[in-house]
Amino acid sequence: MSKVMIYRRFERFWHWTQALLIFALLISGFEIHGSYQLLGFGRASQLHTWMAWALIVLWIFAIFWHITTGEWRQYLPTRKGLGAVIHYYLIGTFTGAAHPYRKTSKAKHNPLQRLAYLFFKLMISPIIWISGLLYLFYNDWPQFLSASIELGSVATVHTGAAFAMLIFVIAHIYMATMGKTMTSLIRPMITGYETLDEQDDVGR
Amino acid sequence: MNMLFINSQGFPMALLRRRQGVVRSRGFVALVIGILAAMACAPAWSAATEPSTADHGSFESLQKDFATAPEVTAACLECHTEAGKQIRETTHWTWTYEHPETGQVLGKRHVINSFCGMVVTNEPRCTSCHVGYGWEDMLQPPPEEADKVDCLVCHDTTGEYRKFPTSAGHPAYEPREWPKGSGNIVNPPDLKKIAQQVGESGRRNCGNCHFYGGGGDGVKHGDLDSSLFDPAKSLDVHMATEGLDFSCGECHTAWGHVIPGSRYQSTARDTKGIDIPGRTDFSRASCESCHNTAPHHQQKLNDHVDRVACQTCHIPEFARGGVATKVWWDWSTAGKLDEEGKPITRLNAEGHAVYLSQKGDFRYEENVQPHYAWFDGTVEYTLRDQALDVENPPIAINRIKGGADDPTSRIWPFKQMRGKQPYDLNRKTLLTTHVFGKDETALWRNFSWEKALRAGTQLSGQPYSGEYGFIETTMLWPITHMVPPADQAVRCQSCHARQSRLAEIKDLYIPGRDRSAGLDWTGWTLVLLVLAGVFLHALLRLIFSGRSGK
User: B532 and B481 in one domain?
Assistant: First the structure.
């Protein structure tokens, strides 16, 4: 058994700040969308804008971090072992089988995670940012934009991406409980350290 | 302190006098006071009246007993040689407005409204609000004699000058009973005293006519009534006597007796911003004239001003001063008499007439949420010679121009007046109603629509088939007064919600109100499916973890 730093300090800061911001953005966003009234439209929209800027700044740092550390490779998709992971979540988890994937600090995400996070990073987030910025700066649209698209379509795309984000968050949180224990996957994201070993400590 | 400011502003005032003539200087002084007060961080200040350069009491021409009001006018014109000519050029005098956009000839002399109908054939009653004396026939232009302009109605500072309601603009010259049969005696005003104390127009001068339009206090506009004589801040932050204490003229800045702020052709969107010498449209009758085009601290709020009029958010309701405004006037029920053949008067709990044999049925409202519509400033009327689309009532007595695709239009608040009015069944036109007069045909005396319409059309030269009916009508009145402090403005979610104040404004995407129903359905269904999947998965884990004996 060896304790290995798997999530570095910046990565954890990024993850949890992003989590907080996404929660705040979802709650205020669906209020702006008119799904319910909580803070009042004005405060919700103000909060939403601030959080969005904060998340954009965080993302700029995160992108820089991923590029300079080479950590972006963690998200390169692979088919190898994908079937086994899916099989585990659908069946193995009930029969008491062990997780087929073995984490290393060089490859800390299993093939399904890689796909999910890549989708999050390359699809959901860019769509939400671009549509969100268009939404925010609606008043300053140049002529060619206002001539070709309408605010309603931008809002629809933004809301669609928000639904995708919400679904991602639900699935992500649930799957985070599917380690050896409920919290064994979550703890490293807090402390940074994971016990990486080749022996299953099933008898624990 | 304010007096000190005013007196110390001699230089800019003099400068402005040379540039712009006499009338606008007070506004400029108020502006300078405002800037100085703001610089000195003064908590509050009020618009004081500019000290006059003349004591009218010392003028020889005014030291005599005037038998009639026109004699006063003649005395005024001895010094103010151009004033009469200026007045004759204004809508206040001509009651005629040739609309530059639509070409329609409007003004009180020509239009029908959804309150009292028309002026023509009812002159001596209606022209009690004309800025002149003796206009007794609308088919003729106003009287030509120089002394027929009424200076006092706008420049009396004593509050004692009153035009008698039925004297075509003249005050009473002997004690007269009004209303008839009430025992209330109206005494003739002391013209000598009044003439010696004339001054700048105050809100009482404007309000005595404009607050009582449509036949009574607050009846017509909804945002103009007697509560504005002494309003609290919460009713009107600009006119509050404890606050800024603006008179009407503070915004409706006169220029050679022309008062800006027309309802027929409004400035729906003032892109000029703050009015300063050299960059002015000579009218401060728009919010932007003082508050500029980006007055909010929050950018998102400023982003609204291109499409939403200031009034739309900043006048949450009108008729808020305790005076109800008329919202329904059904002329079709007028003329009913009681068993003794006497006219009927029915009052509601607040003392408002809900039925009068003379006028029909009424409904009133207080604290009214406005009706909202796109408005580019142009108002088109349904005039007497225009055929009505009788298949599709209600008939719009006026039509507000504008739309989402027009960048000069903004969403404006309106009072919507509704009611029923007589029309020609065969010719399909609105009809001239002869209601006032001592003759045998006037409706208010004889209670016969048959006679009143025949006489009205005949006297006014309108073709009439002889068969009449009543049709439902609507009329929109822009709301722009009764602005409360900013913290009472309409909340964001009043419009940005499924139940939106702007439900009528369809051609615009409003976040919070509008959505793609299909996307919402799909989105929430997927969310629920994923949640259900999660619960099912978790449940199975729980069950199997028990069995596997972990």
Answer: no
